[in-house]
Amino acid sequence: MIEFVDKVKPFIEMIAWVGTLITVITLLIVNRTKIKNWQDNRRERSRKLDDLISNATELQETHKMLAELIEAATRTTESVTTLAKTVEETIAHNKRQDAELERSRNQRRVHDIALFALVDTAAQNGHDGAITEARKVMLEHLQEVAHEPVIAPSWPFCAAASTRANRAISCTL
Known about the structure:
By secondary structure, the chain is mostly helical. The chain contains four helices and no strands.
């Protein structure tokens, strides 16, 4: 009997193995839609993960570009600040030059008036020749300058230049 069992045992194992195989095939057939759904869900999750990774990469690139933009804006702000300071310094320098120019013109006007007074007094006292000729030239020059047109400003900062031109015309002999 033991011999019989030994002879039949491989067949029994083979039948058990075939039964297991049939059970597995049956389970695969029965659960085919579940397996397909699981694979579809896995693919969908994988695609969503890829999309998230792509979005994170784009977000990092955007962050880098924004940092560069902020840096460029900072540099531009510094440049504008420097330019504004330079303009203010230039305006202050021009005002100092205008004041010096006005002082110089006033001094010249005083000298010109004194010179004309001396020449006029000498001419009235009877000095002829060079004194009379100098008085005549000075009077002609004053009459010419009095009829010269005033230069109109061509841009906003020329208003000071126009004022200087008016002063020059009024005090030039």
